Amino acid sequence: MIRTTFLVYMLALFFGLSSSSVAQLKIVKDLDQISEAVQRAVQEKMPGWKHRRGQPITGSGNVLVESYSSKDATIKLSVIPYDSKEEAEKEIKDLFAKEGAQRRLADLGDEGCAWGYRGSKFAFRRHNLNVFVSIEADDMTDKEKVAKQFAKVVADALKDL
User: Fold this and answer.
1) CB-based contact 27:147 (threshold 8 Å)
2) Full DSSP string of 83-150
3) Considering the entire predicted model, what is its pTM?
4) CA separation for the pair 131, 147 (Å, rounded)
5) DSSP 3-state helix, strand, coil percentages of the chain (rounded to 5)?
6) Which pLDDT tens digit goes with each residue over 40-92?
7) How far is CA 23 from the centre of its chain?
8) Architecture of domain 27-159 in this structure
9) What is the C-alpha to C-alpha distance for residues 102 and 95, in angstroms, rounded to an integer?
């Protein structure tokens, strides 16, 4: 009887969670799934960028490293999945403090910031993922705008994972 009551209680609790609560508990670790979602979004919203998947630095663990290039620029993307949203949140806040985040960006992921020369580097957290975007472009006048647009495309792509 106690087991049945406990089971009914647990099922009611589980099914009583709202969809936003379920999304907050989401833990994404599959780098291939992350890469495919980002590639689809970039192809759809920023066509013409060529994708290349790289290798993380030896010993850095489970990290997605990619680059996207056009004739004028190369955008570098790194995604680090953590075991929990809380761990990712702590790490990103530590980075913001260490790098002296120039601008907090409420419209980028769950929390984001820009830093570097003219705000050309972006970091944000989405669920348990910390994401880093930077751009290399010598003669591109609006490179910061392009990098931020790319970061937003990535943030949106990761929202539904």
Assistant:
1) no
2) SSHHHHHHHHHHHHHHHT-SEEETTSSSEEEEESGGG-EEEEEETTEEEEEEEE-SS-TTHHHHHHHH
3) 0.80
4) 13
5) 45, 25, 30
6) 999 999 999 999 999 998 888 899 999 999 999 999 999 999 999 999 999 99
7) 15
8) 3-Layer(aba) Sandwich (3.40)
9) 12
